[in-house]
């Protein structure tokens, strides 16, 4: 769907699934004007920030795009802006996932080591597996120390 900013200078192509039925607060990236947009209401609400709007915001459905756009005169700076969702996965998030995974792994090892006697009835080779795991972790620590 195409949404026009209340200032009338920018048009945004937004995926209809990104706007819920009850509406959503939108902000123009060009003029920083903020307004509430409801896709089910034909009358559009006034902008939240008190800035004079040149024209009311209008909503064009997909079948009316060519008709409406061809009738309106094209102003400089009123080109169609395609909305692309931001990619939110950052290096900081990646590191936090790694840290949480390491802490979870250590917690599982501690729980298994704490309850190894009752669990060895269910898993007969648990003590051998834990011993090998501890030796592998010691070898990794020694390897990391040797790198320095």
Could you explain the architecture of this structure?
The chain is an alpha+beta fold. The protein has helices at residues 65-71, 91-114, 116-122, 126-147; strands at 2-4, 11-13, 24-27, 34-37, 59-60, 80-82. The strands form two sheets. A four-stranded mixed beta sheet has the order 5-1-2-6, with no helix packed on it. A hairpin with a 6-residue loop joins β1 (2-4) and β2 (11-13). It is elongated, with a radius of gyration of 29 Å. The two termini are 57 Å apart. The relative contact order is 0.12. Mean pLDDT is 76; it is low at 50-57 and 60-70.
Largest sheet: 4 strands, mixed
Mean pLDDT: 76
Query: How many β-strand runs?
Result: 6
**Quaternary organization:** single chain
| Number of discrete helical segments | 4
The ordered string of helix (H) and strand (E) elements is EEEEEHEHHH
Radius of gyration, whole Å:
29 Å
**Largest beta sheet: strand ordering:** 5-1-2-6
pLDDT < 50 runs, ≥5 residues: 50-57, 60-70
Beta-strand percent range: 5-15%
Quote the distance from N terminus to C terminus. Answer: 57 Å
Structural class: alpha+beta
Shape: elongated
Helix percent reads 40-55%
């Amino acid at each position: 769907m195409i949404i026009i900013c209340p200032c009338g200078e920018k048009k945004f192509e937004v995926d209809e699934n990104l706007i819920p039925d009850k509406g959503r607060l939108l902000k123009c990236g060009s003029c920083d004007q903020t307004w509430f947009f409801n896709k089910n209401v034909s009358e559009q609400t006034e902008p939240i920030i008190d800035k004079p709007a040149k024209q009311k915001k209008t909503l064009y459905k997909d079948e009316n795009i060519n008709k409406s756009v061809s009738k309106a005169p094209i102003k400089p700076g009123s080109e169609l802006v395609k909305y692309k969702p931001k990619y939110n996965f950052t290096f900081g998030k990646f590191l936090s996932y790694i840290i949480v995974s390491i802490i979870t792994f250590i917690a599982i090892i501690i729980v298994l080591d704490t309850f190894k006697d009752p669990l060895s009835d269910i898993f007969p080779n648990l003590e051998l597996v834990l011993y090998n795991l501890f030796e592998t972790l010691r070898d990794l620590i020694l390897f990391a120390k040797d790198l320095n």
